[in-house]
């Protein structure tokens, strides 16, 4: 749909439907669709897709196999991070904590884009940023 409100609501609905019938969600390809919403142009759609995936992965870790989180997707998440609400930022940062960068250069790039969150007024955003930065620091050689 062209309306971002419909897309963000659909993302939440996939998580709720997964609670009711996870097999149906997987059979109908809704997880893949949710993965596509991670690259949406609207930051609220992205934040809701991340929140829905997070909720689904909490109950069914095997669902991660059906959603491809790669470098372009991470870049889209980082772009949405600058434009979404505090709630959305926390979900995006927490999801980035589960991502393993392919090399040290990507680690540094992600760190540079997350560092401004350390000065955020919301303590939850700051703590989520710290968690991601601590994980990434372990992967940087220097």
User: What is the count of β-strands?
Assistant: 0
Distance between the termini: 46 Å
Low-confidence stretches: none
Q: Any idea what the radius of gyration is?
A: 15 Å
Biggest sheet record: none
Portion of residues within helices: 55-70%
Supply the number of helical segments. 8
Helix/strand class: mainly alpha
DSSP strand (E) fraction?
Answer: under 5%
SSE pattern, N- to C-terminal: HHHHHHHH
Q: Kindly report the average pLDDT value.
A: 92
Coarse morphology: globular
Features:
8 helices; 142 residues; mainly alpha
Give a brief outline of the structure:
This protein is mainly α and 142 residues long. Helix content is 69%, strand content 0%.
Account of the 3D structure:
The protein is an all-alpha fold and 142 residues long. 69% of the residues lie in helices and 0% in strands. It has eight helices and no strands. It has helices at residues 4-20, 22-27, 30-37, 43-59, 71-81, 86-96, 104-114, 123-139. Helix 5 runs antiparallel to helix 6 (86-96) and helix 7 (104-114) runs antiparallel to helix 8. The chain is globular. The N and C termini lie far apart (46 Å). The relative contact order is 0.12. The mean pLDDT is 92.
What topology does this entry show?
Blueprint: H1 4-20, H2 22-27, H3 30-37, H4 43-59, H5 71-81, H6 86-96, H7 104-114, H8 123-139
Helix pairs in contact: 1-3, 1-4, 3-4, 4-5, 4-6, 5-6, 6-8, 7-8
